[in-house]
Amino acid sequence: MDIYIEGLTKVIKKKQILSDVTLSISGVYGLLGPNGAGKTTLMKILAGLLEFSAGRVLLGEELISTGTRVKRTDHIGYLPQDFMIYPELKMYEVLEHIAILQGETPTSCQSKIKDVVEQVNLSEHINKKMRELSGGMRRRVGIAQLLLRKPSVLIFDEPTAGLDIRERVRFRNLLKQLGKRHTVIISSHIVEDIEFLCTKIGIIENGRVLFEGEPEELKKKAAHCTYEINVSFAELDEIMATKEVVQMSEEPSHVVVRVLSDKPIGQRVSPRLMDGYLALLKEAAPLE
Ligand SMILES: Nc1ncnc2c1ncn2[C@@H]1O[C@H](COP(=O)(O)OP(=O)(O)OP(=O)(O)O)[C@@H](O)[C@H]1O
């Protein structure tokens, strides 16, 4: 189900953390923004964990916020950055405990637990203690406990942060699967993950929406200014100091530097999502 956020504002100690945020969230939705942009605050507000100062939130056509808070509902599941509970309990016991808190009995929740554990590909580890699981596995248990409530919207704050590359790929694939059945909101600094997963993107900076649209639209922001230049190792420092460098890759004899430039330089190349994102941030607050 889609989420509509209208004019959401959050003020803490006279500081505007979110300013008149209006977003239309559907599919697998990526929330991008620099550190301190307000992403976590927005997600916690959607999950009903934080109050806001003004605005409203709708789930489909239903208003799910009262004056200053989104009502806690089983429709929305929020996975915080760290999910570590009951380290000495087995995964099954943790999920059983949560299901019982939700009104199930040890018998009635058995098949539900088996089902959600299967969905997050952890069936073979179901009898391991939480402390024996890797960080990525624990996060998958976090998703399994959310799925027990059958939410239609899943919110993930930095879901792949701190995971090693194999766990990250596995986790990304799981999020993609979940996106087929749920509206998924993901915040991440890893633009590659957003590019792989998201069908729509919202960018916030300093609590304000800079962009909302499809990934292709964002890429277009850098269509006329993305270049690659080959530079010697000796020239690298100067390029770094004078150009908007997006990426570098080292070759045996030189370095290929990807830059954003208003003036033609080197060879123009097709923009990627990262280029569009940085071009947008540059447009909003030019460095030079
Ligand atoms: N309880 C609070 N009191 C004062 N300021 C706060 C509080 N919570 C958040 N902030 C400020 O609000 C801003 C937005 O924080 P938030 O954590 O939502 O950003 P973010 O986009 O999730 O950042 P990051 O990517 O670094 O996690 C930051 O400047 C932060 O310092």
Present the secondary structure layout:
Layout: E1 3-12, E2 15-25, E3 28-32, H1 39-46, E4 54-59, E5 62-63, E6 76-79, H2 91-101, H3 110-119, H4 135-147, E7 153-157, H5 165-181, E8 183-187, H6 191-197, E9 200-205, E10 208-213, H7 215-220, E11 226-231, H8 236-242, E12 244-250, E13 255-260, E14 267-268, H9 273-284
This protein binds adenosine-5'-triphosphate.
CATH architecture designation of the largest domain: 3-Layer(aba) Sandwich
Total E-strand runs:
14
Number of helices: 9
The biggest beta sheet is recorded as: 6 strands, mixed
Percent of sequence in beta strands: 25-35%
Name of the CATH superfamily of the largest domain: P-loop containing nucleotide triphosphate hydrolases
Show unreliable segments: none
CATH topology of the largest domain: Rossmann fold
| Approximate helicity band | 25-40%
- N- and C-termini, Cα separation: 42 Å
Rg, rounded, reads 22 Å
Order of helices and strands: EEEHEEEHHHEHEHEEHEHEEEH
Average per-residue pLDDT, rounded, comes to 90
What small-molecule ligands were found? adenosine-5'-triphosphate
Q: What quaternary form is this?
A: single chain
